[in-house]
Amino acid sequence: MSRLRSIGPRAILLVAVVVTLAGCVGPALPTDQLLVTNDPKLAGTVVRDKVLWQYRLGLAALRAGAYDEAKERFDDAILTMGGILANRADAQRARSLWSGEERKTFIGEPYERVMAYYYRALLYWRDGEPDNARACYRSGQLIDSVAEEGDYRADYILLDYLDGLASAKLAADGSDALQRAEKNAKHALPAYDAQANVLVFAEWGQGPLKYADGAYGEKLRFSERESAARSARLTVAGRTVELAPWDDLYFQATTRGGRVMDYILGNKAVFKGATDTVGDLSLIGAAIAHERAERKRDEGESGRGSDQTAVALAAIGLLSKALSASTVAHADLRAWDNLPRYLGFTALQLPPGDYPAQINYLDVSGRVLEAHTREFTLHVPADRDRDTVLFLSELAKNPADR
Length: 402
Fold this sequence. Notes:
By secondary structure, the chain is an alpha+beta fold. It has eleven helices and ten strands. It has helices at 2-24, 50-63, 67-85, 88-95, 110-126, 130-143, 157-169, 175-184, 249-254, 260-298, 304-326; strands spanning 198-206, 209-213, 219-223, 231-236, 239-243, 247-248, 340-348, 353-362, 374-380, 388-393. The strands form three sheets. The chain has a four-stranded mixed β-sheet. Strands 5-4-8-9 form a four-stranded antiparallel β-sheet, with no helix packed on it. Strands 2-3 form a two-stranded antiparallel ribbon. Helix 2 packs antiparallel against helix 3 and helix 5 runs antiparallel to helix 6. The model is unreliable at 11-29 (pLDDT under 50).
């Protein structure tokens, strides 16, 4: 009996160590490696976060007027995104019980991927390539076409509208795309003007952030960031143009419905909770069996059977607790956090020249937010075979003036 009593704790400890190591130690994940790069802005970035940082840096470069850098970063992000979508090993890692969703290579939720194509399209159009811009708009809309609820599939107004405008510019029929845009729009959309030579892309407000809900943080949710600006107003060449929000990224983030990963994380959470409960009950049972064994020995009886039961239940309890502790059900909260909330657009016809201009951002009551007002010069080149693209961001330190 004394031998059994001395072996029991050691057996329990051995099981715990083996199970814990089995749950915590695995092959090194390549996504944990630091990125090998000569790019100082990406130094210290792990491989799995490269696309996230290319998104952020690309948008910061665009807002600063560093268009070549913005193109390089969005091109790299989109290329990597395409490779990751075809990488089954990366997806399998995220589905594993022992690996969290954040361990996979980041490509972002659909609204984030769509915006990479939206900004790249803007840059293509600026370079006089509306055909490539149109391809980006269609790629973005395709990404949005797999929403759970049909009403919210491929429902970006601007992507369809600009798809049709690019077609009109290329002497093709853009009426189908315009009809799709009008179907989802909450305000009247202007008819296409193929002669418009100044395209104004505006954005304001701050995009959504992510947070985790649920007992184990397995539910991905989106938070709305407060923004005073609800619309914009452009004044140029004696004209005032009201810019309404055509698309709302918070709306897009929250109307996608469930993800495949949500079901995987939900199952992980169920497994984590069930094994934790089994562990608690088994350890309680082990304690009761141990007390019973002690009581029998105090009464002069054999407690061997109860000792064996205590050891078995303790082993099961520790195994279950270790499995529960090793199961990672937390949702991935990495986010493209410098996105805007609202997107606006207008197209103008202007002769070549320099035009003093002003962009105002307005609150929900239509009052101008004076601190957000920016003045700049709009330059429309002569003898140019491409449109002048103006990008205006409330989140930029200064608006682009080219």
